[in-house]
Amino acid sequence: MRTDGLRWDGLRWDGLRWDGIVTLHGRVEQRIAKALQRRHGIGLSEYRALCRLVDADDGELRMQELADLIGLNQSSVSRLVTRLENAGLTRRDHCPADRRGVYTQITGEGRAVQDKASPTYHAELTEALDEAAADPALAPLVHLLRTRWTRRARGPR
After folding, report:
1. Residue 19 and residue 141: Cα distance in Å, rounded?
2. How far is Cα 106 from Cα 150, in angstroms, rounded to an integer?
3. What is the structure's pLDDT at 2?
4. Residue 13 pLDDT > 90, yes or no?
5. Tens digit of pLDDT for each residue in 18-32?
6. One-character DSSP codes across 125-145
7. Rounded Cα gap, residues 131 and 30, in angstroms
8. Which value, in Å, is the radius of gyration of the alpha carbons in the chain?
9. Percent of the chain predicted with pLDDT > 90
10. Of 78-82, 95-99, 113-117, 148-152, where does mean pLDDT reach its minimum?
């Protein structure tokens, strides 16, 4: 089958599905980022870094680990951690066994900011997904996200 000169095979469908994911991701990210900045004065990447640090053993991670966990490159995560440090939300420390290794550790103030921003993050995520679920082009993706992972969280049937 050909439509407008393009073959509608698996590759074309993959592209359309991926475009939907990118659209959904962009809408959700934009909404959450605006709310976090407006209400808490932090960006979405800062919030994600604080969450990863809160969950880490002793509240600290190597810089490369943090970069991998939040999807940033080394240079970007270094700038991010500098912003967090300047705000008093994290501090850097060198690895005692390997002085080249640099850790970032969350501070008490960083924990407080993350804790206060968490309800905003979750509420905006839910509202953004609810809005996307009303869009016929995105509704199947939202349904998949909400049902597939909900079943996995509950365990096998």
Report:
1. 11
2. 30
3. 46
4. no
5. 999 999 999 999 999
6. HHHHHHHHHTSTTTHHHHHHH
7. 13
8. 19
9. 76
10. 148-152
* Type of residue at 151: R
Q: Please, how many CA atoms are within 13 Å of residue 153, restricted to the half-sphere of its CB?
A: 6
Beta-carbon count within 10 A of 50 CB: 25
Global pTM reads: 0.83
Q: Which two tokens stand for residue 34?
A: 């605006």
Q: Pairing between strand 6-7 and 2-3?
A: antiparallel
Helices within the chain (DSSP H only): 10-40, 44-55, 63-70, 74-86, 108-133, 139-154
Hunting for tokens 């359309």 — which residue is that? 16
- Burial group, residue 135, by CB count within 10 angstroms (0-12, 13-18, 19+): middle
Specify whether the CB–CB gap between 113 and 37 falls below 8 A.
no
> What is d(CA 128, CA 35) in angstroms, rounded to the nearest whole number?
11
Residue 136, amino acid: P
Residue 1 has pLDDT above 70, yes or no: no
